[in-house]
Protein: ABC transporter ATP-binding protein
Organism: Nocardioides aestuarii
Amino acid sequence: MAGIEVSALHKQYPDGTVAVDRVDLSIGDGELFVMLGPSGCGKTTTLRAMAGLERQTSGDIHIGSTLVNDLPPAERDIAMVFQFYALYPHLKTRDNLAFPLRAEGLPEPEVRQRVEAAAEKMQLGHLLDRRPQRLSGGEQQRVALARALVRRPRAFLMDEPLTNLDAELRADVRTEIKHLQAELGTTMVYVTHDQVEAMSLGHRIAILNKGRVEQVGTPLEVYNRPASLFCAAFIGSPPMNLIPVDVAEGELRGPGGLALTVPPGLPRDRTLVAGVRPEALEVTPPQEAGTIPGRVVSAETLGDEIIYVVDHGGDQDVRVRMPPTTHFAAEAPVGLRHVGGPPPVYDVDSEGLVA
Ligand code: ATP
């Protein structure tokens, strides 16, 4: 097992595209580290550089204490699982699993023993004699995971391995991956554009944007204090309300007079927005104490919650997450208040967190 250090990693493709822009990452030994970001942000290129499938323009990658820049993939002692399972179609599950071990020249009794242990772990025992075309998508993906597992690499690198599964299977296999990683304690770098996957899997998450790292933190840190306006708009569904605010007299006020708890030390000479999660706002009957007047624009019922869009006199309406027991119809006059602690505040010009 080994941690992974990425220092000033830079990748410019021959056509001039800068896919990875001086990225630093320090991934701990045994950590499940997620790289999250929108399409094209450089996640896959970073992962492929770790794997040795892509040569970086500059920068260093260490796996454990080994500088791997010049090592081919086979000598890096990592196992990759991709979005496309790439099983050998003519081989039964057992031989698909055995393939990398036979390629390493392991004796046959050990191959058999490792294949059976991995199959048991991924609950594939009853599928060992089937070929891939007779396996479901989820089963094929479990075979691909088991094939990575048999090798006992120093690290797993996973690139959107669940993308081709339906929602229910995705949740099941996600749980299996999480258990497996915890049990083996093997470092795992997991690439996804799906924030639910990132939040539920990652010990820490790196949020990438345009080839750069915007934030590295635990799921809660990333959710509660997004490090930039980009992260604030990217994390959460619906995402934070970005409410323009004035700092005056120790108070933070949004348009329409919405009062927010003030984080200390706010600069007064900048254009600021507060990042207010939908669950940190509350819709009430009109004229309740401590509320400002608003009007329901729409109510989206999601079963376990309702998302109200509320016009409160600002340029932009706000989204409010409420329990399904609330009933405010579209056009209804309502009260609106902030119920959370101090929200993170961002400088519109630098797009950075100021408090
Ligand atoms: P996705 O989630 O869509 O896979 P990603 O975050 O993994 O995206 P990359 O695949 O790493 O992003 O791509 C980063 C950038 O590099 C994108 O702008 C992409 O178009 C570009 N890119 C990727 N491969 C090449 C290539 N071979 N030549 C030129 N540009 C490339």
